[in-house]
User: Fold this.
Amino acid sequence: MQIKKSHKTALNAQSAAIDNTINAMLEKAVSRHATDVHLEPRERNIVVRFRIDGLLQEVAKLPLSALEALTENIKARAQLKIDDSRAPQTGDFVFVSNDADINLQVSTMPTVAGEKIAIHMSPHLSQPANLEALGYWGDMLRMIEYSVAEPHGLVIATSPQRIGTSMSLLGIVQLLNTPALNIVTLEDPIEHRVAGVTQSQVDVNSGINFSSGLQSLLKQDPNVVMISDLHESEALRIAVDASMRGRLILGGLHVNSASHAIAHLLHMGSEPYLIASSLKLVLAQRFIRRLCHECREEYKPDQSELKEIKQLLKLSGVATIKQLHDLEQQAVKAAIGDDLDSLSTTAANVSRLWRANPNGCPHCKFSGFQGRLGACEVIENSENLKKVIAGKPIVSKIQTAALADGLIPLQLDGFIKALRGQTSFDEVLLLLNGVW
Assistant:
C-alpha cells in the first residue's frame, strides 16, 4: 500500500516537531546547568523536571499524547530498543550544545502511566576537578596526600551520590598521575577522561563486571587501581588482597559518611583484621548549594540560630565557640572564602552568617544560589582506630574514635564554609537532616 504524499509530509512534520521539542528541552537544561532531566508521565500530561544544584524543579508540562513519540526519539538517539516498553533500559548519546559536547546517560522505566525517562547530563569526557576544587582543604588534604604517597593500601571514597564518589576518586588519581606510575581504572560509566591513565568501562553484556574486571586489571602490572564501585563482596575481597600485595587500591562506596563506609566494609564479609590492616583512608563528600557571590546577604544570627549552632557543634565533637574560631582561622589560611576580609567568629561568639537573597539576581537566574560545593570529611586509619575496627564495631563507635582523632565531620565542614560565605546555615541544616 502506498502512503499518500500528504501523509508522509505530516509524519515528517511531526517527527521534526518532536526533534525540536527534545533539542529545545536539552538546550534549556544545559543553559540552566542542570545535571538531570526527568520526563515523568502522569495521569493527564508529561511533567518535565530539571535537577539544578541538587534540587528538582518543574520546568514544563507536555501533552500525554506526545509520550510515545518523545520516548521513541530519545530511545533511538541512545540506541535502545524502541519496540520494548516493558523492561528498563539504559543507554547514552552525545548532545552538542554551542560547540560543547554533553554526555547524556539515558534510563527508562515502565510505570502505570507509561515509560519514565531520566537523563543524567555531564560534559563529555571532560577533565575532572582537583581535590581542592571539590572542597578538601587543610589537614584533610594533607592526610590524603600523605596516605596516597605510600605505594600500597586501600583508600575508600564515599557519597550517597555516584558522581560525588567518582569525582573524589578521580581527584586522587590526578594527584598521583605521573609517567612513573601505571594507573588503571574500572568505571561505570566513564564520565571524565584523565590523560595518561588507562580507563576501562564495566560492560555486563561482555562479561566485565567489577569483580572480573578488577581481576583482569591486576594482570596489567598496575601501581594504582581505581574501581568506582566496591559494592560486590568478591570485588572487595580482591581489592583488599591486592592492597596487601603492594597495590594502591582506590575504591568507591555509596553510603552516607566515612564512618558508615567503614562499617559497610566490615559487614560485606571481609575479616575485620584484614580491613584494619589494609585500610589507609576514607573520604566522604556531600554536595550542598553554593550561595550566589553577587547577591548573597550578610546578617547577624539570632538567638534561635545560635542555639542551633551550639547543638551542631556538640554533635560534631566541638565543645566551644573558641574551637570553632580556631577552625575558621585555619580555613582562612587555606583560602576558604578567600574573598572575605574578616572572620565571622570571635573566641566567644558567631558574629555573622550569610544567606541567599530571596529574589536572587540575573547572575544566578534569580535563585540565590549558583552551583554546588563539597562538604567533606576524611578519616585516617590511626592505630587507635585499627583496634576499634578489629572488633567489628557499630557506626557510632567508629565515629567516636574518629572524632577523638580530630575528625572534622561533614556538617562541621559545611558550617565552616558557611562562616566563610560560601553557603548558608540553612544548607548545613539540610545536610545535618540528611536532605543532601
User: Anything to note?
Assistant: DSSP finds 15 helices and 15 strands in the chain. The mean pLDDT is 91.
